[in-house]
Amino acid sequence: MPEADTERAYRRIATEEAFAPPDLIERYRKLIVGGAANDRGFESLMGYFLFNDSPRTNAIVERLQDLGERRIGDMDASGIDRQVISLTAPGVQVFDAPTAVSLAAASNDELAAAVRAYPDRFTGLAAVAPQDPPAAARELERAVRTLGLRGAIINSHTRGEYLDDEKFWDIFEAAEALGVPVYLHPRDPAPKMLEPLLECGLDGAIYGFAVETGMHLLRIIMSGVFDRFPKLEIVVGHLGEAIPYWLFRVDFFHRGIVETGRYANVKPLLKKPSDYMKENIYVTTSGMAWEPVIMYARSVLGTDRVLYAMDYPYQFVPEEVAVTDNLPISGDEKKALYETNAQRVFGLQDTASSDGSVRP
Ligand code: 1DF
Ligand code: MN
Residue 267, SS3? Predict the structure, then answer.
């Protein structure tokens, strides 16, 4: 078991941890049984978790629904001091707009109550319904100002649409104004690119999530959203969904595309795509407890850009913090990776704990 809190120079904050209200799980089941989702990616993903009926999937679905002692016990057993918790993928993004708006509010109320019950252990991010961007912006504001949540989570595409479309930018405008990040979390690939991944079993977290979400991140960068909202911060899991590996080539060809006017809708940006990765994006280690890639992401993006995450309960590996504990980096750098970067990005110094003191 990982060492106790008091023996360490840092507290471990895990930043991409999931939950699901029982009501949402029930609604997912009904969507799948009734065929009403009309979304083969969602059916593949949530059909697996809700109808596979194996010990492995059942344990995940049970853990998702717990915001109490079981979760705290798992955190203690795996050396996690604080979870930054979000509604699981695909969140409310598979429902019609009015349903999604009300489910997001209900989810945020439930999560905020858990944060109030365990203020020293839990931080929450808000679910929003991109199906109704103005309502999503209002819900984010309510969640941050009234409920004390510390950002928004959006699970990649919403009914096949991506956030580079300006119709969604109310959400970015609100996040920037509130000074909170948007966590761009994966989900099953959009219908237009699902089939080649699904037919060989690659649509899920194994790879399809990264194809979907890495492309989504590049779409956002290329749309000029960070020129419009220069203080907007987006957090991406899985060490950047492979994008840090591609930056040299993206910069090179982006320059060419813009210079030649190859695409009418690709406009020049104020900076190189890689500059936005280093100035507006944070990446987390969710699901990637693997030294060479953590070291690579830190070297490319900077040590203040990489945050620890576990991806509980989907990748609940109780001994995995040993990988991060044993990285060949200084104590200060480890503290940044595990603790202070997350405090800064999610504004955790603003979070008062139960005894009224201000602690991360
Ligand atoms: C899986 C992984 C599913 C993650 C998720 O949402 C999810 C999985 C349904 O293992 O299939 O959010 N994840 O974040 O790693
Ligand atoms: Mn995740």
Answer: coil
Indicate whether 244 belongs to any domain.
Answer: yes
Helix axes 97-117, 133-145, angle to 10 degrees: 10
Q: Does residue 205's CB lie within 6 angstroms of at least one atom of ligand 1? A: yes
81 is a catalytic site residue: no
Whose alpha carbon is nearest atom 7 of ligand 1? 89
Query: Over the stretch 282-338, which tens digit does the pLDDT of each residue have?
Result: 999 999 999 999 999 999 999 999 999 999 999 999 999 999 999 999 999 999 999
pTM of the model: 0.96
CA 56 to chain centre: 23
Q: Which of 39, 74, 132, 311 is catalytic?
A: 311
Contacts of 190 (CB under 8 A, 6+ apart): 41, 156, 157, 160, 162, 212
Cβ of 240 below 6 Å from ligand 1: no
Please tell me the total count of domains within the chain: 1
Alpha carbon of 6 to ligand 2 centroid (Å): 28
204 lines ligand 1 (CB under 6 A): yes
Domain hosting residue 51, numbered range: 12-344
The model's pLDDT over 156-199, given as tens digits with 9 standing for 90+, comes to: 999 999 999 999 999 999 999 999 999 999 999 999 999 999 99
